[in-house]
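ok trying again, last paste got cut off:
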Amino acid sequence: MTSTAANDGSRAQAQIGVTGLAVMGSNLARNLARHGHTVAVHNRSKAKTDVLIADHGSEGNFIPSESIADFVASLELPRRVLIMVKAGDPTDAVINELADAMEPGDIIIDGGNARFTDTIRREAAMRERGLHFVGAGVSGGEVGALEGPSIMPGGSVESYKSLGPLLESISAHVDGIPCCAHIGTDGSGHFVKMVHNGIEYSDMQLIGEAYDLMRRVLGYSAAEIAAVFREWNAGELESYLVEITAEVLDKIDPQTGKALVDVIVDAAEQKGTGRWTVQSALDLGVPVTGIAEAVFARALSGSRAQRAATRGLTGGDLPSADEALAGRDADAFVEDIRLALFGSKVIAYAQGFDQITAGSVEHNWGVKPVDLATIWRGGCIIRARFLNRIRDAYTENPELLSLILDPYFRDAVGGALGSWRRVVTTAVTLGIPTPGFSSSLAYYDGLRADRLPAALTQGQRDYFGAHTYERIDAPVGKKFHILWSEGGAEVEA
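nice, full thing came through this time. structure:
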């Protein structure tokens, strides 16, 4: 089909508009057009609109516009506009410009990686003006945007009735089910996407630790480790990230003939969603230890001046790899790493779902974990085979207190523990950092412990700050205090 000018007199009506035509916005517009929707397109600089129409105008019906006024005029009622611009002030500027040109009942959708608190603020402001505001998390990268992402829209139920069928049509589908669902009100969609990205951070860190152990303990080449990941991807670890890990490790640098991974600077960057996840978890009081360690590991990798200054410091009296392996052969250690990776990945997802549940309660969103397990099975970066198991777990028990209490995951993690402990022990013995594996195991052991040293912590707090404590032989919630400087008697607080 050919593109149609918005102001040519025909007043052709688009079902949805996209403003912000960088790669993600352009690909989402193309995806919508490929699925039979007439798409109005706009960009602050006309050149990007022209490129989209010139290169991809034949893929569907586009209505290009140079001004916001013409762009909005080309949309059918209620108007639906997807914003794909840089987060922060640029997003607010576009929202306000659109709002001035729109009418009550119209829908503005922010598909960027906005901070969920900004989305809460924007939704309230637009609601005051009679407009619907939808914060939609979109995962899948550039390819997913074009071929089918996972989409996590928040906002009002009314807005989803109008917008949902369009988004569901362009999302990835698994077993015929769209990877898109209404998440909840105001900032819920961007909150869920934020935690999705936090799980992604943890998953990538764990994969990196598995790679590092095979490289440094077993002396495997990048290509040999690629083969291991490819084999793992045929089993219960099957996931997008494990799949692409093999591809990255197999890539040869054309300039040097070395494995590409060996010529990439070992300093991982981040755009902020991982930090937001940890900050939010701290506010909610949810221990997302694996996600936090992944964020800190990236920060440490980027501390290049400090690392250069401390490189070569003693690690103590370290044994050889053969001594640390204590008679285990390479294949046995690789299997240990696989199980440690699986157990740690389960913890990452469990912590992420715990944070989402806490956030949902805090903001009264009504997020359903089973919906997330369903829509994350395709399109998104953390898609994995065991999301089917997570979906089954929350279908069986929507009120599950922790993912590791589900019978499948309880048994799977329990079966991995011996290997997991051997991997962490070996890494510590050899001075190889494994913050993801180690913190995930410590979290699991903390949960299952009969008693934690927090009893001592509470006693210390009562001593220096009169913060009180509870007794194991008193009703829950009843507080006590020791008169430490007045004879040491216990009193009810």
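cool. The CA atoms of residues 104 and 129 lie 7 Å apart. The chain is about 55% helix and 10% strand.
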